[in-house]
């Protein structure tokens, strides 16, 4: 029996993969997810590798594909990518679709049980025999802590503000990101006429207005009105940003996946893709040879791809946070070089699309 603690996007998708491979699977989730609200601003960018794997499992959430990506910053040439770049999905919609598919594959989903780990899984105070326990319970994983698998966490010195906005349908296939002195601002299409703003800002930057309409107006100006007028839908939410990485991904009979194992800055939208790649590799290794050998192989296959991506995101944040004149000139030269080199653009696009994510 495989027990997955956490039925979010990664945990529920892993359950589908394990069940499709013939395993008996139970998922524990705190609450049954309801339908996403019309103004829900928590979204993920799925790269082509993630989309292909989800499709192979029969997980089909509503998606908004994008085929154009614009990146620019102060004194820098525009950097554009075109082609099948990926799709945006509302997190709750993906979770719902994955849980529904898991149930259709015979996965047992238990809602609201008291789950803990003490040299084995305990459910509502009783020992629960398991061949494998998977901690997919997020960045603040209680299972990880109880299993004494330490995670090194670092404050990134920024908050991220999320806001759903109405957009001109002419830009429904365009994802855009502008690097500002205070941090990156992204506009991610989630519907033919809607997008989500993700505005990462340094703690010391001037606070954004409380009025969502004012935030949308500032974002329109920050994008130099290239995306037309942005109109706020609903309220903005703000969360602190940090990154972290577990020193180990497993101990006998237990593995960490997704945010329970690693977290990164959201500026390139790679977080959920790394988690889904974790799930894919773990399912494949477990199918080939169940046991601790599979967990060791999973950890070897995923630790360094995840760590290199985390460090790359920290590096991008640091580079675009520099304000000294030499740094600004060097940054502008670097972006301009990529913008004018087809080979470098292709390399960057391959990274973003998941071709170098380390997934099997």
Distance between the termini: 24 Å
Question: How many strand units?
Answer: 18
Weakly predicted, low-confidence segments: 322-360
| Beta strand % | 25-35%
CATH superfamily: FAD/NAD(P)-binding domain
Architecture overview:
It is a single chain. By secondary structure, the chain is α/β, with parallel strands linked by helices. It is globular. It has helices at 9-20, 48-57, 91-104, 142-146, 212-222, 271-288, 292-321, 325-339, 342-352, and strands spanning 2-5, 25-29, 43-46, 64-72, 79-90, 108-111, 115-117, 121-123, 126-127, 132-135, 151-166, 174-180, 183-191, 194-202, 231-246, 250-251, 254-256, 262-263. This is NAD(P)-binding protein.
Give a quick rundown of the structure.
This protein has 360 residues and is an alpha/beta fold. It has helices spanning 9-20, 48-57, 91-104, 142-146, 212-222, 271-288, 292-321, 325-339, 342-352, and strands at residues 2-5, 25-29, 43-46, 64-72, 79-90, 108-111, 115-117, 121-123, 126-127, 132-135, 151-166, 174-180, 183-191, 194-202, 231-246, 250-251, 254-256, 262-263. The protein has one domain: FAD/NAD(P)-binding domain.
């Amino acid at each position: 029996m495989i027990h997955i603690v956490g039925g979010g996007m990664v945990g529920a998708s892993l359950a589908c993969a394990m069940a499709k491979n013939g395993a008996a699977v139970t998922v524990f989730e705190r609450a049954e997810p309801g339908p996403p609200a019309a103004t829900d601003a928590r979204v993920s960018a799925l790269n082509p590798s993630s989309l292909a794997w989800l499709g192979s499992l029969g997980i089909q959430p509503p998606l908004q594909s994008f085929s154009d990506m614009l990146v620019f910053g102060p004194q820098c040439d525009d950097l554009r990518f075109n082609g099948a770049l990926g799709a945006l999905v509302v997190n709750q919609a993906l979770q719902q679709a994955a849980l529904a598919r898991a149930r259709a594959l015979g996965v047992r989903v238990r809602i609201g049980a008291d789950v803990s780990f003490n040299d084995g899984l305990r459910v509502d105070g009783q020992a629960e025999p398991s061949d494998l326990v998977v901690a997919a319970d997020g960045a603040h994983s209680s299972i990880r802590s109880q299993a004494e698998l330490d995670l090194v966490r670092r404050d990134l010195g920024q908050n991220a503000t999320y806001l759903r906005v109405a957009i001109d349908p002419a830009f429904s296939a365009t994802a855009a990101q502008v690097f500002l002195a205070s941090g990156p601002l992204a506009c991610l299409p989630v519907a033919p006429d809607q997008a989500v703003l993700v505005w990462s800002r340094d703690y010391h930057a001037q606070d954004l207005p409380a009025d969502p309409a004012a935030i949308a107006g500032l974002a329109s100006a920050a994008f130099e009105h290239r995306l037309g007028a942005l109109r706020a839908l609903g309220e903005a939410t703000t969360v602190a940003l940090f990154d972290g990485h577990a020193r180990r991904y497993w101990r006998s009979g237990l593995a960490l996946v997704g945010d329970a194992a690693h977290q990164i800055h959201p500026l390139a939208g790679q977080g959920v893709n790394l988690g889904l790649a974790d799930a894919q590799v773990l399912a494949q290794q477990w199918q080939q040879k169940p046991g601790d050998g599979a967990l060791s192989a999973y950890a070897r296959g995923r630790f360094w791809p995840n760590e290199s991506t985390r460090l790359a995101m920290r590096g991008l944040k640091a580079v675009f946070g520099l304000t000294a004149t030499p740094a600004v000139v060097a940054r502008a030269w670097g972006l301009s070089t990529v913008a004018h080199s087809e080979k470098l653009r292709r390399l960057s696009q391959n990274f973003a699309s998941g071709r170098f994510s380390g997934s099997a």
